[in-house]
Amino acid sequence: MKQEYWDGMAKDFSEQVLEISDVDLNNVIPKTAKGLGGKNKNAVDFGCGAGALTRVIAPYFGSTLGVDFSKDLLDRADALTEGTNISYQFADLSVPRGKRFPCDVAFCANVLISDDGAVREGIARKIVRNVTRGGDAVFIVPALESAIRLYQVAFAGQVSDGYSKHEALAEINGWARKDIASLPEGIIKVGGTKTKHFMGDELIEFLLAWGLRDVSLERVFYPWSELLEDEPRGLKKSLPWDWMAVGTKG
């Protein structure tokens, strides 16, 4: 995605983009930041956007830096930020070589979403390279399992609303054919944009390949209202989620 695309979304970013730190129902992100943090540590939020996650993690670190390649989003983040231990800098993570941002803990929320595998690998490599040895990296990505579950929930909802099974299958299969660009690659369109989704074990293998060890997974649940106009009946305990992986740099 080009810088101009993200610049154009700066004003209404929160309304157009799912900022997972704002809808984290179980407060998994701040709990993780607290566990990894310390006043003698610094954190960098890579691909910070309008700074929502940056502001959530900042209280748990001595200093926190948000990095993004959209100058308009960085201006928006700065305008929304009151914390004195937070700063922002411009950087394009897709560029192989560039400015370094050494950190004790790296955060990266829904940045590894390009449909180009080489771009994803380059960003992951760059982020891990900035983490000090023995430091930690936190990656949050769209979950493929959750995305597929959405079609099941929508199908059940249509049957519950009185559609025949045949009618509901035709409707949901048509929706899936339009949205799923490549199931083997985990590429599903979100708002018309091809977006990489990860399975849990796939994410672990991906991060192990780029220098992390002891990678663990946790689900970051968010409301159905972020995906559907009406919350599915009887599924309040079966919520959509993003994967959050935490690993240590060896």
Outline the structure in words.
- With 250 residues, this protein is of the alpha/beta class.
- It has a single domain (3-142, 194-229, 239-249), classed as Rossmann fold (3-Layer(aba) Sandwich), CATH 3.40.50.
- Helix content is 36%, strand content 28%.
- It is built from nine helices and ten strands.
- It has helices at residues 3-8, 13-16, 28-36, 52-57, 71-80, 117-130, 144-160, 165-179, 200-209, and strands at residues 38-46, 61-68, 86-90, 103-109, 131-142, 180-182, 187-190, 193-196, 212-221, 241-249.
- It has a seven-stranded mixed beta sheet, with helices on both faces. The protein has a three-stranded antiparallel beta sheet with strand order 6-7-8.
- Helix 7 (144-160) runs antiparallel to helix 8 (165-179).
- It is globular.
The CATH architecture = 3-Layer(aba) Sandwich
Characterize the overall form.
Answer: globular
- Give me the side-by-side strand order of the main sheet: 3-2-1-4-5-10-9
Q: What is the level 1 CATH name?
A: Alpha Beta
Structural class call reads alpha/beta
**How many separate helices?**
9
**Helix content range:** 25-40%
Beta-strand residue fraction: 25-35%
Q: Mind summarizing the main beta sheet?
A: 7 strands, mixed
First and last CA, distance: 31 Å
Domain count: the total is: 1
Oligomer: single chain
